[in-house]
Design goal:
Mean pLDDT: 81
Structural class: mainly alpha
Largest sheet: none
Number of helices: 8
Distance between the termini: 49 Å
């Protein structure tokens, strides 16, 4: 396997351009050039795919409201494929950005949230399942804000159980959409996916509470 640093990456080229532009001693236009370089850093393919997923969220919501399950099924798959693609591209070409780190999981959460709540409102999913999902996400957001207030900067990384929950939730929603679109038969497999996803929702919520609570407690003991 060739070494990753054998050839300059896109990020290296951008950094070199920014360095050349501002090589002189704080020339008057240096700040503007740095801002331009920062904007250019955001304009990459992974971030464009993330923005595409964010733009699809209201489209999916509107189509679900109309009951166009076939189109929603296609867009849901496209959204998932773009999520996989932007992560692979960002890692392969070292195109990770702060914007991508924040917007990528946000796009995933919003897509899952909209589809789950809409299907629950249409009685395609139990209301208590949607309530459990929303409660877990609210708990995570509130916990993250509380941790930031107590401990400062928070580095969020999905746990294994959270990744498993995301995969199960995707398969459940994909299955329900396929059934509603007439591409699959309703069966016990939907119930198995439903209860498996519900179990991982509770486990991931408990993991985040225990993990962040333990870190906050250790930090408070260290500063006292």
């Amino acid at each position: 396997m060739a070494r990753a640093d054998a050839s300059p990456t896109v990020r290296d080229l951008r950094d070199s351009i920014a360095t050349v532009l501002c090589s002189a001693r704080q020339r008057p236009s240096c700040r503007i050039q740095r801002k331009i370089a920062a904007v250019l850093q955001l304009l990459n393919l992974p971030n464009a795919l993330t923005l595409l997923r964010l733009a699809l969220v209201p489209v999916i919501a509107a189509l679900l409201h109309r009951g166009d399950y076939g189109t929603v099924l296609c867009l849901f798959v496209v959204s998932a494929m773009s999520d996989f693609a932007d992560g692979q591209i960002a890692r392969r070409w070292q195109l990770q950005t702060r914007f991508g780190a924040l917007a990528d999981p946000l796009a995933d959460k919003l897509t899952m949230f909209v589809v789950t709540v809409q299907l629950a409102l249409q009685q395609a999913l139990p209301w208590w399942f949607a309530a459990a999902l929303v409660s877990r996400d609210v708990l995570i957001v509130v916990g993250a804000l509380a941790y930031r207030l107590v401990a400062g900067r928070l580095e969020m990384a999905p746990s294994r159980i959270s990744k498993l929950n995301t995969a199960l939730q995707f398969m459940l929603l994909l299955g329900v959409l396929a059934v509603r679109a007439g591409h699959a038969e309703q069966g016990r497999w939907i119930d198995i996916l439903l209860w498996s996803t519900l179990a991982t929702i509770g486990m991931s919520a408990a993991h985040y509470v225990l993990s962040w609570g333990g870190k906050a407690a250790r930090l408070r003991r260290g500063t006292s």
